[in-house]
Amino acid sequence: MTDGKMDFIGQELQKLKEEGLYKEIKTLESSQGAWVQIKGEKVLNFCSNNYLGFAAHDRIKEAAKKAIDRYGVGPGAVRPIAGTMTIHEELEKELAEFKGAEATLVLQSGFCANLAAIPALAEKGDTIISDELNHASIIDGSRLSRANKKVYPHNDMEGLEKVLQETPEGKKLIITDGVFSMDGDIAPLPEIVELAEKYGAMTFVDDAHGEGVVGRSGRGIVDHFDLHGRVDVEVGTFSKALGVMGGVIAGSRELIEYIIQKGRPFTFSSALTVPDTAATLEAVRILSESDELVEKLWDNARYFQKGIKEIGLDTGVTETPITPVMIGEAHQAAEFSKRLLEEKIFAQSIGFPLVPRGKARIRVMISATHSKSDLDFALEKFKKIGRELKLV
Ligand SMILES: *Cc1c(COP(=O)(O)O)cnc(C)c1O
User: Fold this and answer.
1) Of all atoms in ligand 1, which is nearest to the CA of residue 49?
2) Percent of the chain, pLDDT > 90?
3) What is the number of helices (H) and of strands (E) in the chain?
4) CATH of domain 24-55+291-388
5) Residue nearest to atom 12 of ligand 1 (CA)
6) Which of 354, 316, 348, 317 has the alpha carbon at shortest distance from 333?
7) Which of 237, 272, 273, 320 to mutate to test the pocket of ligand 1 (most atoms within 8 A of CB)?
8) Is the pLDDT of residue 168 over 90?
9) Angstrom distance (rounded) from CA 76 to CA 387
């Protein structure tokens, strides 16, 4: 390495460190759960999207083991060649029933689902109309599509209508996250659907943080707003409340048939593995049988958010179990998070550029696996550190 052709890497890494944007990654020595082990210590876990505890649920682990005995571990090929197994089809059928959609297609991740669906629906000359806070996988899927991109201010329906009025030509595709992951607020989907119907646009919602959380027994945002049949495309992930890994596209039978033909991550990347597929199927069955865990999740969220407000801290605009505890400046939020870990609480600080300057926060991810005494323990520490840092 004397010719300097790779020097940019070291320079860029140095720059990230100087700007405070370098990611330090913690290693867990245990499974996901209310408490996890980091560097030999048990800490209360507020960092995972494992909303319902399915990442290490006994019935789900058992289902994955059984499926391995029957089908092995690997799918062997991309799905159109020889990678589709009966277990993939079972999952697609039961997911469609659960979500109240005509059909679904299972992919390797939520990220892949967006990369499969978006370029299939919009191409050169079409327009993708996107909420400014949409997830990175929506942004990347939109880039791959070569369509025009227009961004409207977050959840701003006047802004959306203005963009629709200014877009007379080509197909129009409105895309929004269902639940926004940094603030926990919910997209105004009924209004989006009405505007889409008025202007002849397609609607596309990415419900990654809504599945297993909102709607009856966690059926997601379309169910939450009772918009069955009026949202054209629903994308979801199995990696959050469902506790596993994988993605899904739901919609009409014809839409799914079309994405099977056109979606590149479906055609060129191998199928979801057997244990992932079986585990997700079991998670869907548990949710279909009972809403007990979803209720517990919401009960915990209400309890914790009320406690945080009583301390004198602010939870922003959340409407879901995602709980941003607003701190202010990024360095303060980072200090808060560091102090929390010393007090055995694992909660990430989030600052610019993920959220606007001055809106840095601790993002607390509540789970049904937390007990009331876990939450009381955390509230006490938030109060103690809030006082230390003169925030309350
Ligand atoms: C997490 C997330 C994804 C990615 O899902 P994976 O299955 O983890 O790839 C996509 N979209 C949104 C809105 C997300 O929050």
Assistant:
1) 1
2) 95
3) 14, 13
4) 3.90.1150.10
5) 208
6) 348
7) 237
8) no
9) 56
pLDDT confidence band for 352 (50 / 70 / 90): confident
Q: What is the pLDDT of residue 3?
A: 86
One of 57, 172, 240, 370 is an active-site residue; which one?
A: 240
Output the ligand 1 site: residues, CB below 6 A.
109-111, 135, 137, 177, 181, 206, 208-209, 237, 239, 247
Q: What is the pLDDT of residue 19?
A: 84
Class of the domain covering 57-289: alpha beta
Contact status, residue 321 vs residue 365, Cβ threshold 8 Å: yes
Q: Which of 57, 135, 209, 370 is catalytic?
A: 209
Residue with tokens 């789900």: 60
What letter represents residue 99's amino acid?
K
Predicted pLDDT at 21: 83
The pTM for the full model equals: 0.96
> What average pLDDT score do residues 154-170 get?
95
Residue nearest to atom 6 of ligand 1 (CA): 110
Query: Residue 96: pLDDT above 90?
Result: yes
* Three-state DSSP state, 181: coil
Alpha carbon distance 55, 243 (integer Å) = 4
CB 108 within 8 A of CB 271: yes
pLDDT attached to residue 313: 98
The Cα 279–Cα 229 span in angstroms is 28
Give the per-residue pLDDT at 1.
57
The gap from C-alpha 385 to its chain's centroid, in whole angstroms, comes to: 29
What average pLDDT does the structure give for the chain? 97
Q: Where are the domains of the chain?
A: 24-55+291-388, 57-289
- 229 three-state secondary structure: coil
Which of 42-46, 50-54, 136-140, 356-360 is predicted least confidently? 356-360
CA nearest ligand 1 atom 14, residue:
208
